Amino acid sequence: MTRRIGLLGGSFNPAHRAHRAMSLAAAAALGLDEVWWLVSPGNPLKPKAGMAPYAARLASARQLARRSIIRVSDIEQRLGTVYTADTLAKLTRRYPRHRFIWLMGEDTVAQFHQWKNWRQLAATVPIAVLSRPGYDDEARTARVSGWLRRFVRPGAQARDWTRWSAPAIVFLGLPPDRTSATQLRAADPFWHQRFARNTNGGSGVTLFAEHRRHLG
Ligand SMILES: Nc1ncnc2c1ncn2[C@@H]1O[C@H](COP(=O)(O)OP(=O)(O)OP(=O)(O)O)[C@@H](O)[C@H]1O
Ligand SMILES: O=C(O)c1ccc[n+]([C@@H]2O[C@H](COP(=O)([O-])O)[C@@H](O)[C@H]2O)c1
């Protein structure tokens, strides 16, 4: 059965309520069956210092994803990919019947041209950009000046994304949420210690089983 899957890659250092809210709002706007959170082993553009252990980031993601259509995935860790273009190439090969759309916050758009093989990435799956308060100008600049400009689709057609051929990018205006992991780490630098013991359970079990089947 064809499934419509949104992919939200992130450091999740830690996961927070805006990740959940934006995922569910995007799912409603795009008609998604599931949103997979791809917990990154290490964003190549972010410093390693201050990055909590992978197991704690994964556990915080599972906690936030509970009782929802969000599935938490450690597939990048399993595949050994840190670059999104590599991850997408493998995922689309492994799941030929799924339709994927890449989700990202507005802050990420300004950096997108620094990603490895970003044009190839954009040609692999459509992209949905989710509004983030405080970053509108950066995203707008990237939107009007970048190569992606000519591929912008109207937000009113967002539910039709499976009919688009990539590159295609849609900007979704979602309810604003100012939560950020930076702010949460500043308030609670040792948040990851709460996850040091119990890193099992929660959402993601289905996806893990599915990955196991596909990865052998
Ligand atoms: N409040 C938010 N509104 C919209 N998008 C968000 C929000 N918080 C995070 N995102 C998006 O979620 C994805 C993963 O984000 P990430 O795990 O880096 O969280 P973060 O809060 O941006 O972290 P940090 O403050 O450490 O950079 C990115 O695409 C990011 O743009
Ligand atoms: O592929 C790249 O070159 C690349 C560079 C920077 C970030 N990314 C991805 O962007 C996603 C968001 O990362 P972050 O750390 O801002 O949450 C996450 O999936 C990263 O792997 C990917």
TrEMBL record:
Gene3D superfamilies, alphabetized: HUPs (3.40.50.620)
| Name of the coding gene | nadD
Q: Return one GO MF term.
A: ATP binding
Q: What is its EC number?
A: 2.7.7.18
Q: List the protein's name.
A: Probable nicotinate-nucleotide adenylyltransferase
Q: Name one GO biological process term.
A: NAD+ biosynthetic process
Q: Which family does it belong to?
A: Belongs to the NadD family.
**Presence of the UniProt keyword ATP-binding in the record:** yes
Q: List the top taxonomic levels of the source.
A: Bacteria, Pseudomonadati, Pseudomonadota, Alphaproteobacteria, Sphingomonadales
Pathway annotation: Cofactor biosynthesis; NAD(+) biosynthesis; deamido-NAD(+) from nicotinate D-ribonucleotide: step 1/1
The UniProt catalytic activity note for this protein reads: nicotinate beta-D-ribonucleotide + ATP + H(+) = deamido-NAD(+) + diphosphate
Q: Which CDD domains match?
A: NMNAT
Function, as annotated, reads: Catalyzes the reversible adenylation of nicotinate mononucleotide (NaMN) to nicotinic acid adenine dinucleotide (NaAD).
**Record key words, sorted:** ATP-binding, NAD, Nucleotide-binding, Nucleotidyltransferase, Pyridine nucleotide biosynthesis, Transferase
